[in-house]
Design goal:
By secondary structure, the protein is α+β, with helices and mostly antiparallel strands. The protein folds into three domains: about 150 residues, Beta Polymerase, domain 2, CATH 3.30.460.10; about 140 residues, no CATH class; about 50 residues, no CATH class. Helices cover about 55% and strands about 10% of the residues. The protein contains 24 helices and eleven strands. The strands form three sheets. A seven-stranded mixed beta sheet has the order 3-4-5-2-1-6-7.
Length: about 475
């Protein structure tokens, strides 16, 4: 949070920017109100960079399109039914929306759009007071009817209207509370938290795609753990991601194991820290963060209380991958994301066998081959999965993973491990063995691939000799 004077100075600079000044003059010239709204105004006071420019006006969509067409190089009206027109003005993409007063009809999964005529009323129907501020232009006047500046100073998320009204208008705002908490590091107002817990079932009227969008934004925020705790504590997670609260396993007085829920949140946080160190400057890795959060969701279904006070979770990796695939599909994640996350969950225990004893070069090659393009993610997830308080054990596991990464690098340099293939391709296999395309060629290819993984590069002549020997043994 910057000082009030600096925040106002940043707003002045925003109003004077070419794109804002151009739009403000055009709408004023046409006789309409115009204002910068929401995130850009909030971010000016927070000292954050503004990535998206959102504007509000009393002009209706047809008028907006008419006004922006002469001053823009492109326009799009996919959001016309919701009062939004997009355009590219002075090289920047902007969205301009008619004052709105949206609400759900109580049964459908999409909001019923109603246009309004007042900026103050429009702001009063927004999600949180910190997002309900506007800068009127070209007048350059701050409009803050609900106390957004005060809530920014207090670092609190509060709804402009009563939480029941705000969340009733759009239940997705309950997820936004968690997302903004993680994104901004703010606390959620007690009244809003109480309403979220009480109204959580209303989230079921919101489409899976919109829920997924908020979950993605939360996981890509600066501190998703803060938002996830809010979702679990208010039981909102029970509605759309029940596998996470299910990690809070009951502790048996005779059988003790680590808190799987707290462990999973710690793994997520450690994965994010490692991601920033190992891949600085890159965008948040959604696949990695989903895998870190969900990597142990198979444990509740596989927990077994053993004699003597032990607890086992046999095959929780396989069960967890299956549960993750089902949940991600229900949330409408794309196929590639779902496949990558489930692969990481299924493979996240593989390394711990290495820590118990030295792997052969063949085992290391298979580890790399099976991880494929997710190898770096698997490195990060496996390292993050070490949450033991036993310093000696933690040091041993770190050393073991340092060693496996060193061996992977050495083998990659020697054998171009990233592109492992048999030394004879399918055409050459057919020539050597006198075969036509079919299952026998596939079996021979797999034999040569296993040979390459087990023994490394042999050379084409030796590979051909071994292939003939193998074929003779097949009868």
């Amino acid at each position: 949070m910057v000082s009030m004077a600096e925040g106002l100075a940043r707003l002045e600079a925003l109003a004077a920017s070419p794109v804002v000044a151009t739009l403000a003059d055009a709408f004023a010239g046409a006789g309409f109100e115009f204002a910068v709204v929401g995130g850009p105004v909030r971010d000016a006071f927070l000292g954050r960079a503004t990535n998206d420019l959102d504007f509000a006006t009393d002009a209706r969509p047809d008028d907006i399109l008419r006004i922006v067409t002469p001053i823009s190089t492109a326009q799009w009206d996919m959001g016309r039914d919701f009062g939004t027109i997009g355009a590219r003005v002075r090289g920047e993409q902007v969205e301009i929306t008619t004052y709105r007063a949206d609400a759900y009809d109580g049964a459908s999964r999409k909001p019923v759009v109603a246009f309004g005529d007042s900026l103050e009323a429009d702001l009063g129907r927004r999600d949180f007071t910190v997002n309900a501020m506007a800068l009127r232009v070209p007048e350059r006047r701050l409009v803050d009817p609900t106390g957004g500046v005060e809530d920014l100073l207090a670092r609190v998320l509060r709804t402009p209207a009563s939480p029941d009204v705000s969340f009733g208008d759009d239940p997705l705002r309950m997820l936004r509370a968690a997302r903004f908490a993680g994104q901004l590091g703010f606390a959620v107002d007690a009244a809003a938290l109480e309403a979220m817990a009480r109204m959580r079932e209303s989230l079921s009227i919101v489409s899976a795609e919109r829920v997924q969008g908020e979950l993605v934004r939360l996981l890509q925020s600066a501190d998703p753990v803060l938002g996830l705790r809010i979702l679990v504590d208010t039981e909102l997670a029970e509605v759309f991601l029940p596998e996470v609260p299910a990690l809070r396993l009951e502790v048996d007085e005779h059988h003790h194991h680590k808190d799987v829920y707290e462990h999973s949140l710690t793994v997520l946080r450690q994965a994010i820290d490692l991601e920033r160190v190992r891949r600085p400057g890159t965008a948040p890795d959604l696949v990695l963060r989903l895998a870190a959060l969900l990597h142990d969701i198979g444990k509740p279904a596989t927990r077994k209380l053993e004699p003597g006070g032990g607890v086992s979770f046999h095959h929780h990796d396989v069960v967890g991958a299956r549960l993750a695939r089902k949940r991600l599909s229900a949330l409408r994640f794309d196929t590639a994301t779902t496949a990558a996350v489930t692969q990481l969950i299924e493979q996240h225990l593989r390394f711990f066998g290495y820590a118990e004893g030295t792997w052969t070069d063949s085992a290391v090659r298979r580890y790399v081959r099976d991880a494929g393009e997710n190898l770096e993610r698997l490195h990060i997830l496996t390292r993050a999965d070490v949450t033991t308080r036993n310093k000696r054990k933690a040091a041993r596991l770190r050393s073991a993973y340092d060693d496996i990464e060193r061996r992977i690098d050495e083998l990659a340099a020697q054998e171009e491990l990233d592109a492992i293939r048999p030394e004879l391709d399918g055409n050459r296999i057919q020539e050597v063995l006198g075969l036509r395309p079919g299952p026998q060629v596939g079996a021979a290819y797999r034999f040569l691939l296993d040979l390459r993984l087990d023994e490394g590069v042999l050379g084409p002549d030796e590979a051909e000799r071994r292939l003939r020997e193998w074929w003779a043994q097949q009868g």
